[in-house]
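Sorry, explain these C-alpha cells?

___
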Amino acid sequence: MLRCFLRTVLAFIVLAVLSITLTAVTHAQTPLSLDSDVQLPERLWHVEEDGSDVPTTVIAPPEPLAPPPLETVTLMLDWFLSPQHAAILLAKEQGLFQRQGIDVQWQSPGDPSLPTKLLAAGEIDLALGRQSLLHLSAHQGAALTRIATLIETPLNAVITTAAHISSDSAHENLESLATLNFGFTTREGEQLVIPKLTPRVITQTDEEGFTPESLHFDAARALTEQQVQVVADGFYHTLPAQLATEGMEAKIIAYETLSIPRHDGLIVMANRNSLNKRADTWVSFVIALEDATHWMINNPSLAWETLVTAYPVLDNSINANAWEDLLRRTALSPAALDTRRYRAFETFLYQQGVSEAPFKVEHLAIDPHKR
C-alpha cells in the first residue's frame, strides 16, 4: 500500500511539472518571473480514491481462545448406584469436575469383584471400594493405591434376623450364629468376617450343608427366602429396611464386636503406576470431591433434591431415610489420610495369618496433595 501511495504522489508531481511547462510555452512571449501567475488544471486538485491504492489498517478483535479439552477419567462404582456415592454424583452434576478440567465417566459393576480387577489391569482409571478390600488386593499383588476417602466408617456389618438371635449379649449372639448358614457379598466378608464369627464356619463339612455362599448383589432375597440365615457383610443402611418390607426384623452385629479394626468404609483407588504420570489429575479430582462434599453438607436438602432429580433411581424411602446418617459419616477432607488406620489394619491381617508381613502405609495409600 505504501508503494501505491508513493506512485500516486510521483504522478501528481510529474503532471504539475508538465502543466507548468506547457503554460510557459503557451505564454512564451511573456517571460516567467517570480511574480508570474501559474494555474494548475482542475483535475490536478482532485485525486480519485481507489480502495486498492489507498493504504488502510483494519483492527479486528482476536479470535476467542477455545477452552482446553477435558481429560477423561473412567471410574467404576463399588456397587449399584447409591447415596453413598453422593460426592461423586454431585461433583458431576454441579460442574465441579469440569471446572477442574476433567470429565468423570462412571459405571456400575456387573459383579462386586470387577472394580479392583479392572483397575489392576489398567482397564479403568479409578475404582471405589472399601479399605479392607484394598489391603486384601494389595497382598494378592494388585498395584492399587487409595487416593481419597468418601465414607469414614464401615458401611457393612453382620446382619441376620430376630428369628435366629434373641439375646442382646454380643457374645451369646455370636455363639448362636455358629450353626447357621452364612452368605457373603464381598471378598472381605468371605476372607475376614466369616472366619472371625466362629472357627466352625470355615471348616463346615459338606455333610452339614453349611458351606458359605456367594450372594453377589442379592443379599436381601437370600435372607427372605432362607437361602442363608446370616450375611457377613450386608449394607446396614439398606438391608434391614429391605427386610422390614418383608415383615422381618433385622439384627446387626458391628465389625468392632468381632475385633476387626475401624476402617474407611468407602475409598477411591487408583492404579499405583498412574500416581506420577497423572498426579495433577488426581489432585484435581479430590479438589472437586471436597467442593462437592462441603456443598452437600451445607445444603443437605438441596443436595438430596439434586440427586433424586438427576438420578430418579435413588428416589425411594430407604435411601431418603439413610441420607442424614450417610452425611454424618462423609469425609470432609477426602484427600486426608489417616495413616494409623492403615497401619492397624495391616497389623490385624498379619496377626490373623492373612498376610506374611505388613505393608508400609505408603505402599497402600497417599494424600495426593502431599506428593
